[in-house]
Amino acid sequence: MKIVVIQGPNLNMLGVREQNIYGPMKLEDIHAQMKAFAEQNKLEIEFFQSNLEGEIVDRIQECIGDADGIIINPAAYTHTSIAIRDALAAVKIPTIEVHLSNIHAREEFRHNSLTAPVCAGQIVGMGPFGYHLAMVGMTQILNEVAA
Ligand code: DQA
């Protein structure tokens, strides 16, 4: 079973950008923890980060026949991208959306997610631990698929 982790714009800046909101942890450190969890649970995992909407759409499309589950933080595109939502709907692969911050407690323009309605679930406001929760949730979903 393979999970593809897709990280949207500016998440490559974690550890540098707005530490009061996103904390000090770097993306590579979050990914190292996810990789360790994947290895313990005998899952394959691959990471992809892009600042470009079209590249994210391409990577989602490439998940057909490649990934059993997707964990995605579409970052700012969460609130604007019909294209990313449509790509997730098209591939029909179980997807969990993660946000480090609690988007519902922030500016109004962050309250709505265009992508969450085509996901199995959404985890917000738990910081980097949210990615661990997503791994646990995805493991459960993949076990159900395999059963
Ligand atoms: C974010 C929340 C988005 O509103 C924001 O644009 C981000 C990060 C989060 O993980 O909290 O870039 O997705």
UniProtKB/TrEMBL annotation:
<comment type="subunit">
    <text>Homododecamer.</text>
</comment>
<feature type="active site" description="Proton donor">
    <location>
        <position position="99"/>
    </location>
</feature>
<feature type="binding site">
    <location>
        <position position="73"/>
    </location>
    <ligand>
        <name>substrate</name>
    </ligand>
</feature>
<dbReference type="GO" id="GO:0008652">
    <property type="term" value="P:amino acid biosynthetic process"/>
</dbReference>
<comment type="similarity">
    <text>Belongs to the type-II 3-dehydroquinase family.</text>
</comment>
<feature type="site" description="Transition state stabilizer">
    <location>
        <position position="17"/>
    </location>
</feature>
<dbReference type="GO" id="GO:0009423">
    <property type="term" value="P:chorismate biosynthetic process"/>
</dbReference>
<feature type="binding site">
    <location>
        <begin position="100"/>
        <end position="101"/>
    </location>
    <ligand>
        <name>substrate</name>
    </ligand>
</feature>
<feature type="active site" description="Proton acceptor">
    <location>
        <position position="22"/>
    </location>
</feature>
<feature type="binding site">
    <location>
        <position position="79"/>
    </location>
    <ligand>
        <name>substrate</name>
    </ligand>
</feature>
<dbReference type="GO" id="GO:0009073">
    <property type="term" value="P:aromatic amino acid family biosynthetic process"/>
</dbReference>
<keyword id="KW-0057">Aromatic amino acid biosynthesis</keyword>
<feature type="binding site">
    <location>
        <position position="86"/>
    </location>
    <ligand>
        <name>substrate</name>
    </ligand>
</feature>
<dbReference type="GO" id="GO:0003855">
    <property type="term" value="F:3-dehydroquinate dehydratase activity"/>
</dbReference>
<feature type="binding site">
    <location>
        <position position="110"/>
    </location>
    <ligand>
        <name>substrate</name>
    </ligand>
</feature>
<dbReference type="InterPro" id="IPR036441">
    <property type="entry name" value="DHquinase_II_sf"/>
</dbReference>
<comment type="pathway">
    <text>Metabolic intermediate biosynthesis; chorismate biosynthesis; chorismate from D-erythrose 4-phosphate and phosphoenolpyruvate: step 3/7.</text>
</comment>
<dbReference type="GO" id="GO:0019631">
    <property type="term" value="P:quinate catabolic process"/>
</dbReference>
<comment type="function">
    <text>Catalyzes a trans-dehydration via an enolate intermediate.</text>
</comment>
<protein>
    <recommendedName>
        <fullName>3-dehydroquinate dehydratase</fullName>
        <ecNumber>4.2.1.10</ecNumber>
    </recommendedName>
</protein>
<dbReference type="InterPro" id="IPR001874">
    <property type="entry name" value="DHquinase_II"/>
</dbReference>
<dbReference type="InterPro" id="IPR018509">
    <property type="entry name" value="DHquinase_II_CS"/>
</dbReference>
<keyword id="KW-0028">Amino-acid biosynthesis</keyword>
<keyword id="KW-0456">Lyase</keyword>
<dbReference type="Pfam" id="PF01220">
    <property type="entry name" value="DHquinase_II"/>
</dbReference>
